[in-house]
Structures
1.
Amino acid sequence: MPFTPFTPPTGAPRPTPSADPGAPTAAPGRSSRRGIRALAVASAAALLLGACGGSEKDADSAAGGSPAGETADATDDGRSAADITVEPIEPAREITDVRGTTVATDAEPERIVCLVALCDDMLTELGIVPTATNSALLAHPGFLGPEAAAEVPVVPGGFIAPEPEAILSHRPDLVIGLEDTHGRLAPALEDATVFWTVQPEDWQDGVAYLRDLAALTGRTDEAEEAELAFRTRLAEAEAEPSDRTALIIYGSDENFGVAAPGMDVAAGLFPGIAHYPWESRGVEGTYSLEEILAEDVDVLFVETLSFGGDDAPLSEVFAGNPLWESLTAVREGEVHEVDPEVWAKGRGTRSLGIVLDEATAIL
């Protein structure tokens, strides 16, 4: 079966059209042995994931957004990745997020509808159950689990086309969606509720959005706890980086793509915890299998995108292909299927904490 590099459909937010094709280069050598990186997704379900671009971000949010910091080797929010200091969050009725979007509520929102998995991630961290959702993330045992998640109403229309009437039927006082996918719903929602579209590009954005939502909901203690837990996990992982070469691929059938920092939030964690030499090539760019072979990948993380039905894992679809079988990771049994709901779609502190736990256990 031939390998077909995956190209996202037009408008799919996986790689965002506004993204900077340049992405950080993985640091060369690493000094420990751990190993797995997960795969980012794209395809029509790439819309489910959301765009990750390379635009420059504002340093702070108005009501406790990205905390300011110091130290050397600073990340985009001005602080070291190993800096686990968490600044206090103040409750607020208005915030301005990392993309410059201002959100104001008359009171602490209680009925929140999630159109993007990052919303479910943040609400879980804050101890809030969504009024309705269109994500399967909540069924993961690290979130509500299958039984409790089944009690949360599902917004009809799916991720790509959620129905405005159905959203408003839940009488929400806040709706959170993905800018690239749900921004077009604004005219139908803004007069009836508060509509906030997010666009996370990296883990720092996930932290900043969490802090903003905590300020609006008054769940500041919960957010500070969640941020501290995530920063601690990240610092521990980066303190013992692996020298193994990791790769995350995503796809369906014989189509595949490479998850790269700058275009995928989870992939952005990997240059700090493993040798991850994959750079973003923009919306249309991808890697050939020959290029992957040349990097001698030790650990391969696979995100299988499902579009309904019983789709076989991507790693099984490729089994028997001579090029696939030539990969070091395949020969040595280091191919790991991961949950795309968490690895590709979650993009918040709880999802990324799970990614770090799973990855470092393998690398």
2.
Amino acid sequence: MASFFRRKPPADRKDTATSRGYSIEELAAAFPGAPAEAAPPQASEAPPAPAPQADVPVASESPATPAPELQPAPAAAAPTPAPEAAAPAAPAAPPPVPTPEPPPLPVPSAPAPPPAAEPLAPTAPPPAPEGRSGWRERLRGSAFARSLGGLFSRNPRLDDDLLDEIETALLMADVGVAATTSLVDSMRRRMKAREFADAHALLAALRGELVALLRPVAQPLAIDAAARPFVILTVGVNGVGKTTTIGKLARRYRDEGRSMMLAAGDTFRAAAVAQLQAWGERNGVAVIAQGQDADPASVAFDALQAARARGTEVLIADTAGRLHTQQGLMAELGKIRRVLGKIDPDAPHEVLMVVDGTTGQNAISQLRQFHAAVRVTGLVVTKLDGTAKGGVVFALAREFGIPIRYAGIGERPEDLRVFDAEAFVDALLPESLGP
């Protein structure tokens, strides 16, 4: 391309008057690779000023003076053509823009059910009916009542086999070997003496023997009005219901019009103090407490001082449950009794041991150890409702002769009943023979 503009005009050319521009065909032949958009304007348009003068020779008739070489004007220079093999690059396509998914259409849901009524808080069952009917209603599920009821429901014959079955039923009901042997031997002698006409007479005789065994120990607790306060110390193994029994006793004495105070001496079991305080709030009774892990003897000492200062009639002191085989803990009970005696030589006036009715013959060894430590003066037998065997009451009565003050036959405060020997025995035995 550059050689085309640099070539010299022939020396014999004399027409210098005028010069003409290059046609499109000539430019196309000179720039075969130029793109179409870089083509010069059409012939009808005026060419750029510097371009036609590039090939115009200088007007001179002297052949010795050559015309100076003319460089093309920068404005007239065409852009550098791209190589023939390379095609014009297409503009890069923009990256695809992700199309947002349309939101899902709401699915029609079933109408929400109306809000259910708020469940009522669980409440304790109603108290047992008054009188002997309440005892029978609560004790009919015991093993003692079921075994003897099934024995006499078939109207058995009066013979030695019937006595053997009675003996087995008594032993299975935790009456104990000694008490059972004494009862069966007595009825066997009377049967041989022909004192029983039939099985009905034998059932009446069995009832009389059982009532006679329990009548000496059926002694209600009498509050001495001269002792102010009358101090009751409750003891027992773990889980027999001491704290609950104290709450029920507080309700009973408050209903009798007595001024009450409780001492939260069970400082070992978690939440025992809070449990006794809840019973106190429920019954409107003051509770003396020092918190968790306090010295129980110190709690009892403070409670007795406070009760004497306020003129309280009855003070009930709680203690932590302990196994009768742990001598160190049993000695702690003796310490509590001695500390109370420093303020009042007669205190405690009553030592109530709470016995679980479902314990069985183990209750005998428990009572023996507690009696040696703190001289137990009264018993409370709990949890007789339900599946308790109940025969341990006869074993305790025969072995120790300690008064049985109360019996628990339900969860309500009213279900802590004064022990009634006849009502208890009638609840365990069938009312009559036959189904």
3.
Amino acid sequence: MGWKMTTGKFCGGRSCGSRLSGLASAVVVLATLGAAVSGALAEEAKPNAKPADAKAAEAKQPEGNPWVVNCASGGSGTDLECQASQNLTESKTGQRVLTLTVRRQADNGSLAMLLALPHGLFLPAGASYQIDAGNKAAVAIQTSDQNGAYAAIPLTPELLTGLKSGTMLNIGMESVTRKPVTIPVSLKGFTAAVDKLQATK
């Protein structure tokens, strides 16, 4: 079984100090994006949500171009604020499973990816991401609310290049029963969506 779309720490080659700086910037993304995403997803939130592994078993991989770019007028009234996103839902109920949103950080203009994760997770375990069969990198779950849990990934030039050349982004987490859960996210159309996002002023 797979996924359906509705349109709608890796020190690696960097120092851990650089990584922490990037994560500090990502907190800004959570502050600006978290409320908006939470509000947009509130209608999909349902009581007694299933564990993450149960949701994963009932979803299906999207068809076509899964990445959608949406823009709205910024605070100045002249600049556009755009984001590229992919939304995965349960095939039977239409309930959200995972949403990925890419947009510029307000403080420095660099890109970051917000993960809006499902309910039913063991939060201290955090989450992970892996491009195809590459190295797996950890990311902390930084906040949660009635609609799910949230983590932010600063998109360094190296990571952005990897995403553009990859075919699948595997998002990992643990359910409340400590069962590993992996959600594959298609990177088809990611390059075009991010290029459009970066070209928008």
